[in-house]
Amino acid sequence: MKTYQQDYTAYQTYALLDFNISFEKDVTADDISRTVIEVTERIDINKFVAFTHRNSHGYDGLMMLRLLLLAFSDNGYASTRKLAELCRTDIRYMFIAQNQKPSHQAFQRFIHDDLIMSVEEIFYEMNRIMDDELPIDTDVLCIDGTKYEANANKNTFIWRKNTVRHREI
User: Could you tell me the pTM of the whole model?
Assistant: First the structure.
């Protein structure tokens, strides 16, 4: 008589859930990724991306353009491998990519085959559009890390008499 070993492996199909993770609440309202999305919704994307070369199994061209613009505004320049890594690790990139993870080859194909002009020219066009449409005050613009001292300095009460005395002299 043959004895069979009891199978203790329990496959619970109801426990296998498909989670759809959304980063909508994790990305703040004033983040650069939301600005990139807002600007790309206002413009005609056909000026920058040739959708005629797109095949049915590729990633969304608008999403890829948004990821490229975010990387260019964030880092200045990002390699395709760095873009693929950012899509796996950075919440802002996951938010734009809707938790898809394009490979570096997908970014290379998009840049080589589908972009009509270079990323620098597209970024310049986006800045020009933002300057025309959005109320941006460019009177005071510091891009070199200049810091201004506030009136509420922690040593104001100590140096007040000295500064008043030197103003009078």
Answer: 0.68
